[in-house]
Protein: NAD(+) diphosphatase
Amino acid sequence: MRYLNMLKENDAACVSALQNGHIFLFHHLIPLLQRSDPGTFRSVALSYSEVQSVLHRSGSDGSLLKESILIGCSEQNQAQFCLDVGELDPAAVAKECKGTFIDLRKAFFLLAGAEAHLVAKAQALLRWHQINRFSGATGQLTHRNQAGSQRVCSSSSIVYYPKMSPVVIVLVSDGKRCLLGRQSSFPIGLYSALAGFCDMGETLEEAVSREVAEEVGLEVQNIIYSSSQHWPFPHSSFMLACHATVSSAHSQLNVDHLELEDARWFTEEEITCALQVYQQHSERQMEASRYTQR
Ligand SMILES: NC(=O)C1=CN([C@@H]2O[C@H](COP(=O)(O)OP(=O)(O)OC[C@H]3O[C@@H](n4cnc5c(N)ncnc54)[C@H](O)[C@@H]3O)[C@@H](O)[C@H]2O)C=CC1
Ligand SMILES: [Mg+2]
Structure:
């Protein structure tokens, strides 16, 4: 952690870490992956010299490498960076790297947990840099530090840091059943816990109460924080997960159909059965993928 922090503060050390580090490539924010076992994918960690040669063979002079952004540090203490090669031909880069560019909406669910997290973080940082080239206050260009952990306005001292949008997601229970909803944009049959963006100035509890009231017209109690994660959709969300209850006497739903297509109470048996069906479906997909690769 201290090493990463030092790289954010020290441009020269960050350049040297880049030359000895691992680089993950993106093309217009789409991550490069490689197929590993049948049906599974992994992210591609390239060395500095490997990226240099990919860039040269794809017709670039290699200066793009300095645009790399620090995203983390491996267990072997090797710095990890990401780089968007959007100006190059994606097919040529993918062929050079024996990989394929896969949209993050898909990639996020194909990768193992830690890799999915790293790739999502990388995409969020790349996007933030792409849309913050100019200061919103002065309209002048902003310049990044070597790690890409901040941008500074070229005509004032304003410093910009990467931003996330806090989101609450809450599993509401009436003591026997849990409440799930679906938006019309969800895949057929998919239901999820209720979620929503926090408003400016709200506490976690206020955001949970408001979202549940807005979406299904219930008043929740006993809000308990459970865990959090970075969530890359629509982009750079910071998702805070909670549990909450309603009394069974006040569990009648009044669904806002502008926000949700449907919301329902589900029993434990229904959830267990749905999870079993999901598990069987995933196993069948894995099997089909093995078969098509033979
Ligand atoms: N059940 C669900 O709705 C689930 C949602 N999520 C995630 O939860 C988050 C919230 O999703 P929704 O339920 O659709 O939110 P939501 O219930 O707050 O409604 C979305 C609306 O909020 C407004 N909004 C306010 N701040 C916004 C911001 N920073 N970015 C985008 N829109 C903003 C927009 O008008 C947008 O149409 C997203 O990150 C989504 O990917 C994840 C799993 C399930
Ligand atoms: Mg919502």
